Amino acid sequence: MSGHEHAADGTSSSQGRLAVALGVTVLVFVLQLVGAGLTGSLALLFDGAHVFTDATGLAMALLAARLAARPATDKRTWGFSRAEVLAATAQAAVLLAVGLVVLVQGVQRLLTPAPIPATELAFFGVVGLAGNIAALAVLAGGRHRNLNMRAAFLEVLNDALGSVGVIAAAVVIGLTGWLQADAVAALLIGALILPRTLRLLLETLRVLLESTPAGLDLGSVRTHILQLPHVLGVHDLHATQIATGLPVLTAHVVVEDACFSDGHAPQMLDQLQKCVAGHFPVSIEHSTFQLEPASHTIHEHNIHA
Are residues 199 and 250 in the same domain? Predict the structure, then answer.
């Protein structure tokens, strides 16, 4: 089976997982919205709001997975591979906004607590947690496949932690009558959202800004290329990432003039491609090298390191 067939299978699997998780998450949102209305719980309300953003994020993730499966064209030479990065960025941005709102409202509710029925709150918390666990089980097998799936998994995981907070608040209120437990749970939900969201947002922005892929030391790549026989210099060396698992590298490599007259240039190209594909933590299968004779240097303009 070819690599493209494996990729197609993986994309189909991702879509199926996302579709099931989306259905479960929408059901949890409806139940938590009803629960928040019946109990007046801030923790349950914002956990429901969090679930709503997650449902929206899962819908975007599903759309992105379908777009990413489309073949490349002359107008879009990478297809819609970057759709998964855009979807993950949007999800992270929405989660960040929700987390900040939760923190602000939680502080206000600490100062002015409202009566909360503990039994009903616990019931809806357990229902939410059960739904979250089901969605996590569906997404778990594909969470390392790409940024899109990772974002979806993190969103549902945050939901599950939020449901645990709701249940804990219900227990505390039921046993002690301390109504501020609801606000504390809401603040904990916000605190759980922000760190993971910021990490994901920074990772997706690195891709969108075409930064060097994480784990790839471009200085080491340059040094290794310069150590190859007949290589005299390297310039315009760039490494970026189109999408998860799709790093690309381009470079101008200056070689001895004789390589172009003795037929050694094709061997040099093979050596360079093997060099970047197998010697570094990030394997680069898509590499483009421009071989230049030393005498060509005077014709190069605006050379970048």
Answer: no
Kindly give the interhelix angle for 3-39 and 42-68, rounded to the nearest 10 degrees: 160
Contacts of 288 (CB under 8 A, 6+ apart): 248, 249, 250, 251
CB 61 within 8 A of CB 11: no
176 and 237, same structural domain? no
Q: What gap in Å lies between CA 101 and CA 81, rounded to an integer?
A: 32
Burial class (CB in 10 A: 0-12, 13-18, 19+), 215: exposed
Strands 246-255, 286-293: pairing is: parallel
Other C-beta atoms lying within 10 Å of the C-beta of residue 248: 17
Asked if residue 166 lies in contact with residue 43, where contact means CB atoms within 8 angstroms, the answer is yes
> What range defines the domain where residue 124 resides?
3-208
- Convert the pLDDT of each residue in 243-269 to its tens digit: 777 889 999 999 988 888 888 888 888
39, 78, 130 from 43: Cα distances, Å? 10, 43, 17
- Is the whole model's pTM more than 0.85, yes or no? no
